Write a sequence for this structure.
């Protein structure tokens, strides 16, 4: 019998029981698309973290309170509050060669009110050099200066988006907003910066660090410092000077551990990559489990649906089908259904991953849409192979039976 | 019946034992059969006498453990799987007690099935299948799905399927076993007509009124044939 006839028979065989074919198809689609989505979402989450770090800039040095071995995440990353870092420590770093600008950071989440509008936002307490440190441009108005910082001035600079939320297209400069029952003067707002990682700085507000610590938080320590170095090649040298300065200021003797962590962005990136590397490993394990579970599901569906047709195979043999006719028919059926299912699964997997990425991006996060070719090949390959093997094998077993045995199969 | 003529088939000393778990059941204990072209023969016997097994062996659905089976002058004991499939396809037509039609498939497509495996061109398949269905009185049911047909109609589709490749031998295993008396009568009319047209028929049954249509009855008792 020629191949076209066999293909016709196979297609007819699939169409005879549309429900069975549809369910088998569904199993394969879910198996394949599930794995693609898991891997893609995992990659996206990883990109979210990495982009956050990268967006800060490469010639930055971050200073966090609390010691830690080189290459390990500092305590502050795990939410432990250490109060050893002070505003003066950060300011003292300005005298180090190649240091361009410094800023301390404290932040909190609270409401901001303008007339009858209010919204929740992250309030950042930063130094007057913050725009230089983070490369931000004031769109209108100005940033606060040193004397305002020293005098606990109640002035605020808005992110681009929150300005729109509260003021629309009207000019906010000179208006008063309320934060924690204090009245703040709006003195400027930033250009659109775009979201980075988990945070969207366009949606945040900026007040002097002293005002933040003394009026809003009631603390004396700095949560984090950032130092901008003039050129990337001077970063390593400046980092050493920063460590020496801070050790001297904190009275740390030779051989004693640092009570702070100073790291260049490059080092930070390395740590994050290590962390996200374990996330990747974890996701790979989940994908592998999904693949096994999906594979077993397909195995069952194919095995049962073909075994169930043993009588049909017996009948076909009784009517004169040769073994190869039956094998070809069931092989083509298995290839067709796993191929179609695999293709639809790949498409759905990619589309859903894309939708996830678009939704998260539309919320203002820098989430990369990642389609992992390897994941597609492995998912479709393994599930396809399982589908074909377990569609073919029972048909082969049935075709080798005597016609009457297959025909009597219960 | 011209006994000097070479028979369509003859079998000598057919033995068949089935093993279920550790229990061995000797179903055929040396059965001898001879059937000539154009005959209408019934095989009768009690249940468990081996009549169905004998029919399955005669129709190449099953193979004997021992014995000689010559079909159209050829010893079939050395035939391989593909040769047996070809004989079943071209020389034998089966009618089963439980009809064994492909479910959710039209009457026409069911009848076409043996022709598909015989490599008959599609147009010819449709013409022949239509003719076969008309000959069993189902010209109006061509496109009905098998599960939409009554038992009697399903069995007539099965008969049409059995004769569509113009086989040398039509075998029927209790073809009226699942039919009511009216359908049984119609079915026997169909068989009588087929025999008149020259088809060789072998029907396994335990119903005397079915056997009464035949020229000859082979009685099988305890795995051995007795000719009546």
């Amino acid at each position: 019998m020629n191949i076209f006839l066999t293909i016709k028979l196979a297609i007819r065989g699939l169409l005879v029981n549309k429900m069975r074919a549809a369910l088998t198809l569904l199993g394969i689609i879910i198996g394949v698309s599930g794995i693609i989505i898991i891997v893609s979402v995992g990659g996206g989450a990883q990109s979210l973290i990495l982009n956050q770090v990268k967006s800060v800039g490469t010639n930055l040095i971050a200073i966090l309170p609390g010691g830690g071995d080189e290459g390990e995440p500092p305590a502050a990353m795990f939410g432990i509050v250490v109060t050893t870092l002070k505003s003066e420590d950060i300011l003292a770093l300005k005298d180090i060669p190649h240091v361009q600008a410094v800023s301390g950071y404290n932040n909190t989440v609270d409401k901001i009110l303008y007339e009858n509008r209010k919204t929740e936002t992250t309030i950042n307490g930063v130094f007057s050099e913050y725009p230089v440190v983070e490369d931000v441009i004031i769109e209108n108005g100005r940033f606060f200066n040193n004397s305002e910082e020293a005098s606990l001035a109640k002035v605020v600079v808005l992110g681009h988006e929150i300005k729109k939320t509260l003021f629309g297209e009207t000019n906010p400069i000179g208006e008063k907003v309320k934060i924690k029952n204090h009245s703040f003067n709006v003195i400027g707002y930033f250009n659109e910066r775009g979201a980075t990682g988990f945070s969207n700085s366009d949606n945040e507000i900026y007040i002097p660090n002293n005002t933040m610590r003394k009026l809003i938080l009631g603390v004396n320590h700095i949560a984090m410092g950032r130092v901008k170095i003039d050129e990337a090649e001077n970063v390593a040298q400046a980092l050493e000077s920063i460590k020496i300065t801070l050790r001297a200021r904190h009275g740390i003797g030779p051989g004693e551990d640092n009570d702070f962590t100073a790291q260049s962005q490059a080092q930070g990136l390395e740590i994050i990559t290590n962390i996200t590397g374990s996330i990747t490993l974890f996701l790979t394990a989940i994908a592998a489990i999904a693949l096994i579970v999906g594979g077993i599901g397909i195995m069952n569906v194919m095995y049962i649906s073909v075994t169930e047709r043993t009588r049909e195979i017996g009948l076909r043999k009784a009517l004169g089908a040769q073994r190869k006719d039956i094998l070809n028919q069931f092989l083509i059926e298995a290839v067709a259904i796993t191929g179609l299912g695999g293709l639809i699964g790949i498409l759905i997997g990619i589309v859903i991953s894309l939708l996830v990425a678009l939704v998260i991006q539309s919320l203002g996060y820098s989430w990369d849409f990642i389609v992992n070719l390897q994941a597609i090949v492995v998912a479709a390959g393994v599930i396809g192979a399982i589908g074909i093997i377990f569609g073919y094998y029972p048909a082969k077993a049935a075709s080798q039976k005597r016609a009457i045995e297959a025909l009597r199969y219960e | 019946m011209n006994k000097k003529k070479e028979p369509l088939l003859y079998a000598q000393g057919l033995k068949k034992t089935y093993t279920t778990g550790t229990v061995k059941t000797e179903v055929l204990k040396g059965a001898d059969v001879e059937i000539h072209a154009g005959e209408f023969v019934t095989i009768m016997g009690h249940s468990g006498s081996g009549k169905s097994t004998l029919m399955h062996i005669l129709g190449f659905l099953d193979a004997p453990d021992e014995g000689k089976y010559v079909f159209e002058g050829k010893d079939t004991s050395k035939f391989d799987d593909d040769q047996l499939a070809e004989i079943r396809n071209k020389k034998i037509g089966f009618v089963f007690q439980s009809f064994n039609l492909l479910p959710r498939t039209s009457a026409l497509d069911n009848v076409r099935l043996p022709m598909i495996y015989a490599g008959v061109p599609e147009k010819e398949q449709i013409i022949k299948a239509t003719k076969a269905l008309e000959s069993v009185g189902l010209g109006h049911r061509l496109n009905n799905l098998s599960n939409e047909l009554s038992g009697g109609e399903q069995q007539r589709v099965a008969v049409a399927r059995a004769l569509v490749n113009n086989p040398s031998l039509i075998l029927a295993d209790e073809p009226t076993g699942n039919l009511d008396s009216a359908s049984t009568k119609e079915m026997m009319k169909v068989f009588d007509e087929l025999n008149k047209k020259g088809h060789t028929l072998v029907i396994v049954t335990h119903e005397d009124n079915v056997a009464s249509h035949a020229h000859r009855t082979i009685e099988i008792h305890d795995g051995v044939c007795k000719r009546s």
In short: The mean pLDDT of chain B is 90.
